[in-house]
Amino acid sequence: MTTQVGILEKGLLAALELADETPWADLTLSAIAEAADTSLSEFHGLAGKDDLAAHADPYFDKAMSEEGVSHDESPRERLFDVIMLRFEAMEAHRAGLLSLMKYRDHTPSLLLSLPLARKRSADWALVSAGLDNRSGAPVGLKSVAIGYVIDTAERAWRKETSGDFALTMAALDKGLRDAEDRMEQLQRFTGWGKKKTRQDNTADEETKPEET
């Protein structure tokens, strides 16, 4: 028995192939099922066309963890490497994804769910880069920043014409450098991640209210 994730993946890949020539908005679920070589009834209660569109982000997010990273690289370099794996996986489906994204841009339910999808992409990028801990900044804050970087890089990817990822890599590199600078500024301002010295601990003890 095919799982829901399996149906979503088969349907998504079939739909992306069809969307090479047919606008995503004009696709039908029956045509997608036929292209996926599966029965339409397999999709009943599991996946509609919008569900398939929403599954694109988690499907391509998986590529970020497929090769591993070198821990000799800086956190920024690791994030650059894993996020680029995502765009490289997307490139094989460029025409279909551009059609999907155009449809998404005019579908309120998909637009409203996009911020959460970006957060999940960022969360997995941090996991894939070995940065899903409190190093550098709180995980939640890192996730918000990386989600914005991925979104900006994807906008650049949509404009690529030569296939060399020049626009994408430039946007991604700039976004990660800007995010790194902001995190360092906030760290200096807030002092998070600073290890307490023995003197700091003594000062904390001295400022505790006396028990009565």
DSSP E strands, number: 0
Computed CA radius of gyration, to the nearest angstrom: 22 Å
Number of helices: 10
Looking at how many chains there are and whether they match, the oligomeric state comes to single chain
Give the helix proportion (percent range).
55-70%
User: β content, as a range?
Assistant: under 5%
Write the layout of secondary structure elements.
Layout: H1 4-18, H2 29-35, H3 49-54, H4 56-61, H5 75-91, H6 94-105, H7 108-128, H8 139-158, H9 166-190, H10 198-207
Helix pairs in contact: 1-2, 1-6, 5-9, 7-8, 8-9
Short description:
By secondary structure, the chain is mainly alpha-helical.
Task: Please describe what this structure looks like.
There is one protein chain. The protein is mainly α. It is 66% helix and 0% strand. The N and C termini lie far apart (67 Å). About 6% of the residues have low confidence.
